[in-house]
Amino acid sequence: MVTRTARPNHHGPRTPEAPAPHTAEAPHAPEAEALEAEALALAGAVPDPELPQLGLADLGVLRGVVRHRDGVTEVRLTPTYTGCPAVETMAEDIREALSAERFGTVRVVRVLSPAWTTDDITEEGRRKLAEAGIAPPRPGGPAADGPVPLSLAIRCPNCGSVDTELLSRFSSTACKALRRCTSCREPFDHFKELL
Q: How many whole angstroms separate alpha carbon 61 and alpha carbon 54?
């Protein structure tokens, strides 16, 4: 079985995705593969409802697309965390984007394993976060180099200083913290590392 899969951007070993239950999938002729690649690109361009500067591909939540024999296009999506309130909006936006094209019936399936981590955010996604004034999570998170340090240096996306302070563990969404730069005095969001 061939599926078009979004390439995760992570560091370290991950548990392979469990295969989907056996269904009658379309033979993967070049036309079917092209449709799956197109569907993956369209779904990946859908903006995240909480971070609209990022597409779902930038965020790293797409796990793949399968085109079935019955014409159903199945998109596999991993939420950033199990209780993420935006996952229903993501699914609806994916269905709307693909149905507006030639994909007919679109089914969005949640894939919970392997779990999403901030390492799945692409380099392009990290660049877009910084451009939007949100400090991106560090690749590998705090545990990448051994024990978690007592204080974590978070770089200000406005002036680049690492002299920043935590104002609140939560910001506009649960995945972000509110910080302030002690050099330029500007407040900014920090997308927290989740491993």
A: 11
